Amino acid sequence: MYLMTTQSSLLNNNTLAFIALSNEYCQALESARESERIPFVENMLRLLPRIYISATDLQLNQFLAEDAYLEGRLDEDFYDSVRRSVENLLGPDDTYLEVFEEDMKYSDTPIAASVSEGLADIFQVMYNLLDAIRDMPEEVVLSALVAVKDDFESYWSRVLCNVLRALNHIRYTSTTADE
């Protein structure tokens, strides 16, 4: 993807870095089927904190628009294909106990979550962003970034942090046979 960065550009280094990380993340998940377990987990452990920081650093307040909306462009079959690839790669380690689920307060039983589903949910956001901004004017790109930032604050930042915790557990409790 090529975006111009001129002196008058509305896009700054933070937004360009976020877009680049989104692209790198999508490529990593799309190629999960060909990956090995531990290198994939290590790559996610490098990417996810950078994505979190980059999303947090997006300074888009001056571009806030009430109608900022990112259309869902990822079809369900592709989403499920990505999710299944990660699920197959992680095997039984795909499931972890979710402790920050709102319903947990009212439950006597643990609530299970899925690393693959969390990663696929983040993939969906990134994929939709990249697809929406391809060859679009800066104003459209900024509007899409505002929508992603709003969604980050209300939903996928929590998913990212929870998945990061589960991936950290996989990485540092894996057997030597995995390595």
Produce a short descriptive summary:
60% of the residues lie in helices and 4% in strands. With 179 residues, the chain is mainly alpha-helical. It is globular, with a radius of gyration of 17 Å.
Outline the structure in words.
By secondary structure, the protein is mainly α. It has a single domain, classed as Protein of unknown function DUF5063 (Four Helix Bundle (Hemerythrin (Met), subunit A)), CATH 1.20.120. Helices cover 60% and strands 4% of the residues. The protein has five helices and two strands. It has helices spanning 13-30, 37-56, 76-90, 115-133, 138-173; strands at residues 95-98, 111-114. A two-stranded antiparallel ribbon has the order 1-2. Helix 1 packs across helix 4 (115-133), helix 2 (37-56) packs across helix 5 (138-173) and helix 4 (115-133) runs antiparallel to helix 5. The longest helix is centred in the last third of the chain and has 36 residues, at 138-173. The protein is globular and about 45 Å long. The relative contact order is 0.19.
Topology diagram in text:
Blueprint: H1 13-30, H2 37-56, H3 76-90, E1 95-98, E2 111-114, H4 115-133, H5 138-173
Antiparallel strand pairs: 1-2
Helix pairs in contact: 1-2, 1-4, 2-5, 3-4, 4-5
Keywords:
179 residues; mainly alpha; Four Helix Bundle (Hemerythrin (Met), subunit A); two-stranded antiparallel sheet; globular; disordered N terminus
